[in-house]
Amino acid sequence: MSNIVMSVSIALGGVFSIVALAQSPAKPPDLTGVWAVYRGARGGDPKLAPIEAGPLALKPEYAKPYEARRAAEAEANKRGEQLANGSALCIPYGVPTMMSVAIYPVEIIQTPRQVTIISEAFSEVRRLYLDRPQEKLEDVPPGYYGRSVGRWEGDTLVVDTIGIKTSVSGYRGMPHSEQMRISERLRLVTPDYLHDQVTIEDPVVLDKPVVYTLAYKRMPGYEMVEFVCDNNREFVDEKGVVRMRLKDR
């Protein structure tokens, strides 16, 4: 190879290296902070708003009882009643519901080897272990939060979660099996808006995956409030309806 060709090759190699470095940030974006659940706003940028999932594609044997439960809840609401659910019984929401509960914010604490997500509602905690292999499903003890592992793909945190026990209510209260797998892609769409694209797969319960996107807005300076479910004023009657305890029984 001539000296001229070699010089050109070295120069081009340097250019390509600079371009690669420019495209791949030296460190991932910092998601640390408190984030308010963002539902969208009238006149707001639609690119920042959350994206709802379409109708749940439940297999027939799961769709019928699911729709019956939804209908019973609607009827109870018309009567001003609430059917028993996990929150009324002081049971954690678990994954994925804890990621978006009413107006309660979430806090993200990011370190090189772990991302911790804390929901103000019920003070629930998730731990996302970075750059570790996922365990086999049979080796993960079922729980409210399962086992989550993550890795950075450019500016996106990709998370895989398995091991959610079947008693934990799924998205929109949907049922699920032990084989449910939740994939998430967390990415800053602007410095102050965060999206979490969620994909739920379950070959036992679903005919096709459920896909939706949660949105959050940064809350600078906000301090998380303690939320402990310690409520002995409510009870569930024999019909499964939540009642207020008016006196000691």
Features:
249 residues; alpha+beta; two-stranded antiparallel ribbon; globular
**Classification by helices and strands:** alpha+beta
Q: Over all CA atoms, what is the radius of gyration? A: 23 Å
Question: What's the main sheet like?
Answer: 9 strands, mixed, barrel
Strand order of the largest sheet: 1-2-3-4-5-6-7-8-9
Mean pLDDT: 86
The proportion of strand residues reads 25-35%
Distance between the termini: 94 Å
Estimate the global geometry from the Cα principal axes: globular
The number of domains: 1
Low-confidence stretches: 4-12, 15-24
User: For this entry, what is the oligomeric state of its chains?
Assistant: single chain
Order of helices and strands: HEHEEEEEEEEEE
Q: Please provide the count of β strands.
A: 11
Specify the helix fraction band. 10-25%
Total count of helical runs of at least 4 residues: 2
Protein architecture, described:
- The protein has one domain (33-244).
- Helix content is 16%, strand content 29%.
- It is built from 2 helices and 11 strands.
- It has helices at residues 3-23, 60-78; strands spanning 33-37, 106-110, 114-119, 124-130, 147-153, 156-162, 181-190, 193-201, 210-218, 234-236, 242-244.
- Strand 3 (114-119) and strand 4 (124-130) form a beta hairpin.
- Residues 4-12 and 15-24 have low confidence and may be disordered.
Q: What's the arrangement of secondary structure elements?
A:
Elements: H1 3-23, E1 33-37, H2 60-78, E2 106-110, E3 114-119, E4 124-130, E5 147-153, E6 156-162, E7 181-190, E8 193-201, E9 210-218, E10 234-236, E11 242-244
